């Protein structure tokens, strides 16, 4: 076990953008007075200062997470094998392809090795570029090879510094989004500060560097910033075209770098659909965004050699269904309230039915089953029947795929983030409901319009989009803890926007009959400044203490195992074991694997379940037959899995295997009535007794406190 021991910027005048120049700034002959010139100079100065602050905060965040990573592992001082072991589970698998490309004799040979890979899954040749999202590793390795930096910078540092550099892009994108929404860069400053002070809940880049989401989320944040700008009114045609291009590039890069992109963009498409139904976004821009999502995903599909999982994604089916339904129901947004509601219900049902039909049709043609484990997991998670499916239960029992812990909210409240967020969310949601009702009713009564004036100002299209975005991704985070990073970072944006928004404060003060323009202006700036001072006072000392705390990577058992494998096994040896460990074996030793953590393939999932019989109650003959069918030469057993205590009974890996095999689980507790005792003892325990029935097939060749390695006999 591993232990750690001691040792682009938007303009600052967004709010006034949609309003005409006041007459007092214009002379009768049409020439502006000097006050207007002074205002322009002030705006330029504000944008310049805001841009400098954004870039500075982005760079400081990169340095901050890089320093934490160094201080936590003493990365600059540990051995190469220890650095590689620190890339745990799937992180190590992804980094291994970067290392493979770097070590290849040429770029062409490196690419050929990825397209025709026979070391990731034994007895199978797979296309890594099709199966996995590793184009970023390919691009980075080529960049490292062609740049004259080899003698100054090690490959691993080029890799991790790139990821830490993307954090600067991430923070700047959050900053700009908040600035665009509120009209002041003070809002962006507050969003960035909240992102940093809530680091535990906003990012995990410093200890899971190669994880796909750390590549993808900065591009997703850029896309949201670009959409926020796109939804402003009175954009010039050139501005709109450039913004659409930015949205497309960001969408494409986000899709290219993360295998779960289609599910995130499906939620985004659902947000656009909801807002469009209630007439809260410009229809033409919504249609453009639908096409951008489809085209970006299809381009990724081409680059991934027509990956069937992309073609069968719900996103493509949903967006196509929405566009088809729009052509069928051309008069969707005409009529009175009841007429509109009836049309809307019919429209939603039509889109839903079309989505299911198109998706089923595509999957039937392509014989697609790669993502079935995700839907089995969702079905079991949300209570649509218990399951004994091994893959679904494997996800259900992982903490990362459970509900968001309640202590998350107490941590977020300590920085005032969650308190402000909930207040702004409540106010904006009420405004959104009223505006949606007004849009559906189509009322033109003057009295009604006057009552709704404040809500209309508060809920501009960009604000409406960010509202529904944060609500939907909040629901996702609450249901699945691993997805909280999509929500908490946007929470920083949304809360800071609300605290610095003229419209939000105007609506609030009007509700308590205290509104004046001067009071609104004072509160708009004073409250965020006070909040920033509070955050600085309370959390700056803790950040300094965190940066001064020195630790060291320490995992001698795994280091010993990897060194033994490199020194005592042939390069062609095939290893079986847990998915997490084998990713490290591939990275550190280059040996061939039987299975690995990239689980988005049906054949791999079936193979993994069979190999995991080494931890089930199975006969030595059956285990030997299974392992040899995959060409296994060595099997690695881990005591941490065989005698697992991290999970409770029913969620230990051995329990999942017992239930899937129809066997009674170990230990005290209830069992389902149809489960029966196994005829054989648990393999991983019994093999250590060196009984003849085991030694005839398996010979122990390595052992330490954590791992046991057995060599398989080669019977004729």
UniProtKB/TrEMBL annotation:
Positions with biased composition (Basic and acidic residues): 21-30
Compositionally biased region (Basic residues): 1-10
Pfam families: Dpy19
Localization per record: Membrane
GO molecular function: mannosyltransferase activity
Key words of the record: Glycosyltransferase, Membrane, Transferase, Transmembrane, Transmembrane helix
InterPro entries, A to Z: Dpy-19/Dpy-19-like, Dpy19L3
Main location (coarse class): membrane
Region span, Disordered: 1-33
Identification of the protein by name: D19L3 mannosyltransferase
Gene encoding the protein: Dpy19l3
